[in-house]
Amino acid sequence: MRISPALRFATAALLVAAPRVRAQEGTTTLGGRSVVVWRPRGAANERHPIIVFSHGYTGCATQSRFLTEALADRGYWVFAPNHKDARCGQLGGGAGPDESFREPAKWSDQTFADRRDDVRAILQAIAGAPAYAALVDLEHIGLVGHSLSGYTVVGLAGGWASWKLPGVRAVVALSPFVDPFIVHKTLGGVAAPIMYQGGTLDFGITPSVRKPGGAYDASPSPKYFIEFTGAGHFAWTNLRADAHQRILDYALPFLDHYVRGQPAAAMLTKTEPGISALWYQSELGASQPAAARGRR
Predict the structure, then answer these.
(1) C-alpha span between 258 and 254 (Å, rounded)
(2) Has residue 295 been placed in a domain?
(3) Residue 77: burial class (beta carbons within 10 Å; 0-12, 13-18, 19+)
(4) How far is it, in rounded angstroms, from Cα 1 to Cα 236?
(5) Is the Cβ–Cβ distance between 156 and 119 less than 8 Å?
(6) Assigned domain for 296 exists
């Protein structure tokens, strides 16, 4: 994965492209971190499940409002930290990546460990905050991450044994950087149901998920892989809106089923228009067309 000037420019455009902030969105400090929070719609005095959303490299907490707002509308508390590399519309500045994206063999459980620490710290702070005591359901937690934070949430699910976060019920990895786990053969440690999402135009990352011996193959079940036709790396941000509804059509039922424990929706095993691949191996069965594997 090469971080180009074009990527940085696109990241800076995210806030420009983002819609006006809605009333349910606010910013607070949790565990010493700046966190954007989306309050769930619904009964004010009931506990609701938690989703932690983690942004991509040089992105920011609000980079994917289409998703975080949809999760809140669905009845989830959504907490999104600004990691140390967050630019939030600002070009340049800040340190480079901990290790080169071109050399995944050099990565270890110490690479971008600050992101691991951010997620742990805000969950600990939520658990200890009287303001949330009667409102959040700490028994039902899901993690969602894009790009480098696909790496983050896979690591927290057990991709790095030392990162494993107890109590995580499900993980959605959006165009995730998974090469370090593949190289070090650690994906067998993933201990939560996982959905990988990729795109046919996401040339730098999706092939590592779908190839034989890639992230999908190496992950334990329950596991899912969705590939969106015509989707590039920024399809999961507010910069590009063409795949947003399809992304939600699969991510939300997955989280409802595995985080909330609701009955599985038919969509989890149904290929809709605009989907070039839908693979799954779970209690719902298995589907992975052999002819499709490794074609990229």
Answers:
(1) 6
(2) no
(3) buried
(4) 16
(5) yes
(6) no
Domain membership flag for residue 51:
yes
Q: Which two tokens stand for residue 81?
A: 């930290």
Looking up tokens 């779970």, which residue turns up?
282
Where residue 152 sits, what CATH number does that domain have? Answer: 3.40.50.1820
Q: What's residue 251's pLDDT?
A: 98
Predicted pLDDT of residue 139: 96
203-244: per-residue pLDDT in tens? 999 999 999 999 999 999 999 999 999 999 999 999 999 999
Domain count, the chain: 1
Whole-number Cα distances in Å, 259 to 36, 61, 208, 254: 21, 21, 26, 8
Residues facing 279 on adjacent strands: 225
Q: What share of the chain is helix, strand, coil (3-state, %, to 5)?
A: 35, 20, 45
The token duo for 29 is: 């400090």
**pTM of structure:** 0.91
Q: Which two tokens stand for residue 129?
A: 């905050």
Mark out the alpha helices in the chain (DSSP H runs).
Answer: 5-17, 65-73, 113-127, 148-154, 179-184, 206-210, 215-218, 244-258
CB 244 within 8 A of CB 250: no
Domain residue limits at 116: 5-287
Q: Tell me whether strands 48-54 and 285-287 are parallel, antiparallel or unpaired.
A: unpaired
